[in-house]
Amino acid sequence: MTVISRLPGATEEQWDWQLRGACRAADSRLFFHPPGERGRAHEDRDRAAKAVCARCPVRERCLRHALAARERYGVWGGRTEEERQHILRRRRRNRGR
């Protein structure tokens, strides 16, 4: 579940980046795997989602949002759940130094 306390306020300036997302023209199922999806199907879907993200003008903003809100599911900003978790773990380790 998204940590709501980490979300920005309800002002248009905080959310209008979503209107420019390349994903708006795509089927949202591309970005969120169905239950039980594994192997080649999972990799192919992630690769296709990342291809949409690669041409997105707000990709970095999307990734920042996903990291700040601790989005648990889906491809956000061109990164999978596992990749985002790796980024967050690396940040925590670097803060501890």
Notes on the structure:
By secondary structure, this protein is an all-alpha fold. The protein has one domain (18-95). Helices cover 47% and strands 0% of the residues. The chain has four helices and no strands. The protein has helices at 12-15, 39-54, 59-69, 81-95.
What Rg, in angstroms, do the CA atoms define?
A: 14 Å
Low-pLDDT stretches are: none
Instruction: Report the portion of residues in β strands.
Output: under 5%
Number of structural domains = 1
User: Main sheet?
Assistant: none
Helix tally? 4
List the helices and strands in order: HHHH
Shape: globular
The counted number of beta strands is 0
Query: Structural class, judged by helices and strands?
Result: mainly alpha
* Average pLDDT figure: 90
Distance between the termini: 29 Å
The percentage helix is 40-55%
Main location: cytoplasm
Function: Acts as a transcriptional regulator. Probably redox-responsive. The apo- but not holo-form probably binds DNA.
Cofactor: [4Fe-4S] cluster
GO molecular function: 4 iron, 4 sulfur cluster binding; dinitrosyl-iron complex binding; DNA binding; metal ion binding; protein-disulfide reductase [NAD(P)H] activity
